[in-house]
Amino acid sequence: MLQALRKAIAETFYKDMGIKDSEVFVSDGAQGDICRLQLLFGSNMSIAVQDPTFPAYVDSSVIIGQTGDVKKESGSYQKIEYMACGPHNSFFPDLSKTGRTDIIFFCSPNNPTGHAASFEQLEQLVQFAQENGSIIVYDSAYAVYIKDGRPRSIYEVPGARKVAIEVSSFSKIAGFTGVRLGWTVVPQELLYSNGFPVIKDYNRVVCTCFNGASRISQAGGLACLSSQGFKNAEILLETFKSVGLRAYGGENAPYLWVHFPGSNSWDVFNEILENTHIITVPGSGFGPAGKEFIRVTAFGHRENILEASKRLRSFLS
């Protein structure tokens, strides 16, 4: 069954990209793979992350010993290169101002902003990694939501197989959050500076630290690969637009990044929770750039999304 799933993943998500089933590592989800990759990299690696960013990239770096002390005034960590991604730069970092690091964590569509990088942007990122001898860890967990032709995989960009590892998950494709199933792609062309294939080391890490996804999860993954259908985000986008708030994302991702100018994200979170009984996520939890934002998810049953929309309109109007 494992071999069938690896082949199905390669053929479904990486058709015509040259990805072999032998380069696909089935796992218990992207977050676990991020930690296993950190174990592979070790404590001496320098990293860069988008700001705002999914906390696991930063937290796993802290745990493995790659960072310095936290800066109390901003909440950021020393020794991490924070790549600012906001409305001012179309949520893509200015790579000309980004310092060289060994590892670049990049999520597209981004959690929490919902921005999906264009082909031209990813082309810049791949070229930047090539020039600096960096490895991109590309998180494509939300790629199935992309519907406007933007790349769903980093491997759509020529040259990416030599500089990028891609992690992904069934959690967002088919609601597998509790079932736990994902994968990581490590191309054979990805080499260390001494010419040794990264895939050989990652295979050793996986075989040592992970006993494999359950057969039940694997069977579910095989069954759901052809299933799609995502609509709730449109309802929420219209909700925030109707009350005069700017919401980013929601078109190529299940998340909305809602701006409350001049506000503290924790204060906004508390006010919405107390007045509507709706749980959002304070943007500050994703990095310094999230101070004035909250993240809203489109995951949920349609009737719950409609009820949430009704409550938000009433409170925010």
TrEMBL record:
- Tell me yes or no: is Transferase among this UniProt entry's keywords: yes
Q: Name one Pfam family in it.
A: Aminotran_1_2
Tell me which UniProt keywords the record has, alphabetically.
Aminotransferase, Pyridoxal phosphate, Transferase
Among its keywords, does the record have Repressor?
Answer: no
The residues covered by the Aminotransferase class I/classII large domain are: 2-311
Q: Which cofactor does it need?
A: pyridoxal 5'-phosphate
- In Swiss-Prot or TrEMBL terms, this protein is called Aminotransferase class I/classII large domain-containing protein
